[in-house]
Amino acid sequence: MVTNTKNIPVLKGGKTTLLAFTPAILTAVVSAWVPLETGHILPVFGFLVMAVFFGLVILWWQAETARQARSLQPVTFDPEEPARATPLVVRPPVRADSPVSVLRELAMSAGAQVYGAAPAPGRAETVPPAHFPEPSLLPSMRQPSTEEISHVRLVNQAFEADRIELHLQPVVSLPKHKIRFYEALARLRLADGTLLRPAEFLPIIEASGRASAFDRRVLMRTMAVARHLVARGSEAIVGVNLTAHSIAEPGFLWSLARSFDASPDLLGKIVLEMSQQSWRSLDADHRAALAALRERGVPFSLDRATDLRFDPVRLADLGIRFMKLPADLLIDAAERADGRYAGPEPDVRDFAPALRRQGILLIADRVEEESMVPLLCDLGVPLAQGFAFAAPRPVKPEIAIEQPVQQFPGFENAPELLRQAG
Question: For 164-421, CATH number?
Answer without folding.
Answer: 3.20.20.450
